[in-house]
UniProtKB/TrEMBL annotation:
PANTHER family: NADH OXIDOREDUCTASE HCR (PTHR47354), PROTEIN RFBI (PTHR47354:SF5). InterPro entries: Cbr1-like_FAD-bd_dom, FAD-bd_FR_type, FNR_nucleotide-bd, MRET, OxRdtase_FAD/NAD-bd, Riboflavin_synthase-like_b-brl. SUPFAM superfamilies: Ferredoxin reductase-like, C-terminal NADP-linked domain (SSF52343), Riboflavin synthase domain-like (SSF63380). This is Ferredoxin-NADP reductase. GO terms for molecular function: 2 iron, 2 sulfur cluster binding; oxidoreductase activity. Keywords: 2Fe-2S, Iron, Iron-sulfur, Metal-binding. The keyword Phosphoprotein does not apply.
């Protein structure tokens, strides 16, 4: 798979520490919701850094949309969030990954469970569902520190056919019934149960994904129906 030259066409603030980045990539042939791409940045002295980022949307063949959260001690994300400008160029390779994907022809129930910026590939699935006018029932459980840390909050809450449940781990908004805390067995009450045989997608930091998968297995979900994607600092 060859590297393609990409140009930044739009940068939008998602949270105080995250940006949605849109790239025009001639030669890119589209992707499935849930896939990712590799980015390669080259410094003036020739030094190169490669990182993988999930696609936040898959609307057009030659457009790549990402959402990047700054990792303060990271090598690449601070540049993408704080320095990158419209018109800058980088290289893209992909799309990559064929396991953690949702296809519009699938009509089975879908349970999405996200932690923090792990919402990005799941948001791509929600957007793909809307674009395809799919009738597949979707439920989303989104664990995030506070309202200010949520990606695409308004869009996700307003997505028709997608039931969204918010889990705040540090600072819930006023009037939120659930107290602050990590994802717990009681939070699965709002998800599709094992008897409904949903396709389950879990994405987030490694610790979150492992904990969520364990809760799902304890609740009786088939391990073969649980697809996970995790990330950590490089």
């Amino acid at each position: 798979m060859t590297w393609l030259v990409a140009e930044v066409t739009e940068i939008v603030e998602v949270t105080a520490s995250a940006r949605a980045i849109t790239l025009r990539v001639p030669g890119f042939r589209g992707a499935l919701a849930g896939q990712h791409v590799d980015l390669r940045l080259t410094a003036d002295d020739g030094y190169q850094a490669v990182r993988s980022y999930s696609l936040a949307d898959t609307a057009l063949d030659d457009v790549v949309e990402l959402a990047v959260d700054r990792v303060d001690d990271g090598e690449v994300s601070p540049y993408l969030v704080d320095v990158l400008e419209v018109g800058d160029q980088m290289e893209v390779r992909g799309p990559l990954g064929g396991f953690f994907v949702w296809r519009p022809e699938n009509v089975e129930p879908v349970q999405l469970i996200a932690g923090g910026s792990g919402i990005v590939p799941l948001a791509a699935m929600v957007r793909a569902r809307r674009r395809a006018a799919s009738t597949a029932p979707f439920r989303l459980t989104y664990s995030v520190r506070s309202v200010a840390d949520a990606f695409f909050a308004e869009e996700l809450s307003a997505s028709a056919g997608v039931d969204t449940t918010w889990v705040y781990t540090r600072e819930p908004p006023p009037g939120h019934a659930r107290p602050a805390g990590r994802l717990a067995p009681a939070d699965l009450a709002s998800t599709f149960g094992p008897s409904q045989d949903p396709a389950v997608f879990v994405c987030g930091p490694t610790g979150f994904v492992e904990a969520a998968a364990a809760l799902l297995l304890d609740a009786g979900h088939d391990a073969a129906r649980i697809r996970t994607e995790r990330f950590g600092g490089a």
